[in-house]
Amino acid sequence: MTIPTDPRTGEFRRSANHFDARITADGRDGWPVEAGRYRLVVSRACPWASRGLIVRRLLGLESALSVAVADPIQDDKSWRFTLDPDDRDPVLGIKYLAEAYHAADPHYMGGISVPAIVDIPSKRLVSNDYPQITLDFSTEWTSHHRPGAPDLYPERLRGEIDDVNVGVFADVNAAVYQAGFATKQSAYDDAYHRLFAMLDALSDRLERQRYLVGDTITEADIRLFTTLVRFDSVYHGHFKCNRNKLTEQPVLWAYARDLFQTPGFGDTVDFDHIKRHYHEVHEQVNPTRIVPLGPELSGWTTPHHREQLGGRPFGDGTPPGPPPEDERIEDTDGATS
């Protein structure tokens, strides 16, 4: 895997999302919301893709939007479907996600990223715009939400949610990568300091309230959770984000456990995929490709006591039911179900 960094500054530069068409209720971009038409391609290792899995579960979109899970170990063609029979996605009939990218643009030369939404009839990529994908699940796919689906992006709180997301993206979600992939000390130092300054600020905020915005789970909590749940397994050691482990930050550790134990969160997490992807694929960071045996994961299911702060996880809605049988994750570490 080639890691794009600036040769002058040593800073990691994430590629822009090239495919940003939106699937909307009115189909204004040419892609109308339609049950069964699209397939969400994810890696359970990827925090950006995990957002889509969580929102899809919470809103009950499983029957309207199928999911394809890529192998956590990429090769030179990137994400592949080697977890499926004949190494092909059984719905799209392709071996590599790159095939959907090139069906959309035969001249595309950029990175192949997840999450990706693919139009099943044409096998063309529609979008890899991960920030917008989950917002559209909440606002454009409402006709396919389950009864009791929570409002993850309430209109009256959108300004505050957006503001929180900007800071979390820059100084948490992206900063762990900027620290881990830095090739110069100054670039690493900057990302490290921004990350822990923001984690301290978030800890102060969450000491007084159960969720980041309002008294229910919102898009802001989902975006922070997908980084926190990977922190001790990969970011602390592999990416050198090692001032503290998550388990050594009491407020954030309790907050993360609260979300993990909420239906729709922990049941989408696959620690095996997470650990193997980061440690085996990032050879520039981990040339030996040895996958650590730790950390101990049983703490994720211990009491968190965050309910004492009040709040209602699903607001006026209800928890999602158990995941579909074919999407359940085998419990190999004592932390998932």
Q: Would you mind describing this structure in some detail?
A:
The chain has helices spanning 47-59, 98-104, 130-139, 158-180, 185-206, 219-228, 231-235, 250-260, 271-281; strands at 38-42, 66-69, 116-119, 124-127. The chain has 337 residues and is mostly helical. A four-stranded mixed sheet has the order 2-1-3-4, with helices on both faces. β3 and β4 (124-127) form a beta hairpin. It is globular. The relative contact order is 0.14.
Name its key features.
9 helices; 4 strands; globular; mainly alpha; 337 residues; four-stranded mixed beta sheet
Overall pLDDT level: 95
Counting helices, strands and paired strands, the structural category is mainly alpha
Shape type: globular
Order of helices and strands: EHEHEEHHHHHHH
Number of strands: 4
Strand content: 5-15%
For the largest sheet, list the strands in their spatial order. Answer: 2-1-3-4
What share of residues is helical?
25-40%
Biggest sheet architecture: 4 strands, mixed
**C-alpha Rg (nearest Å):** 19 Å
- Give the count of helical stretches: 9
